[in-house]
Task: inverse folding
């Protein structure tokens, strides 16, 4: 597995140096790619958490490792929030740990429908709340990378 991480790390490093456009790397959930330095060349990291304690704790560890790797911008995105209580718990957790909560996405049936259809949510139905917030998040990220 170390060889695979080294290959991805090298590829991402070359892409970041050679291209002026943002490069998005969607890594599997967990800490291994951080502990192996697979994403050491990135300047912005989004940590996706769900409103469950284990997910939030893993997100906090990822946040710490990202900072230790020197990633300049480490943001948290809450996903599948089902209630105002979930929203408050996510906000409180992030605030207590110094994590920047960039967006909260509700558990929205539109996302599930897009997934079943094999279509990107932003290309499926823009009327859903989660899709609208995804578009806002994409716009915010686009501005920060310009």
Result:
């Amino acid at each position: 597995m170390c060889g695979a991480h080294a290959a991805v790390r090298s590829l991402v490093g070359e892409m970041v140096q050679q291209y002026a456009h943002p490069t998005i790397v969607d890594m599997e959930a967990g800490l291994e790619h951080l502990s192996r330095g697979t994403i050491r060349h990135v300047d912005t990291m989004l940590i996706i958490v769900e409103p469950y304690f284990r997910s939030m704790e893993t997100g906090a560890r990822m946040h710490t490792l990202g900072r230790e790797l020197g990633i300049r911008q480490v943001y948290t995105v809450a996903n599948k929030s089902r209630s105002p209580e979930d929203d408050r718990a996510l906000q409180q957790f992030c605030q207590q740990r110094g994590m920047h909560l960039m967006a909260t996405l509700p558990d929205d049936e539109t996302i599930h429908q897009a997934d079943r259809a094999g279509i990107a949510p932003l290309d499926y139905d823009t009327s859903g709340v989660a899709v609208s917030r995804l578009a806002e998040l994409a716009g915010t990220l686009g501005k920060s990378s310009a």
Notes: The mean pLDDT is 85. The chain has seven helices and three strands. The chain has two domains: 2-105, 108-146. The helical segments are 2-18, 32-35, 53-68, 84-96, 109-117, 121-124, 129-145.
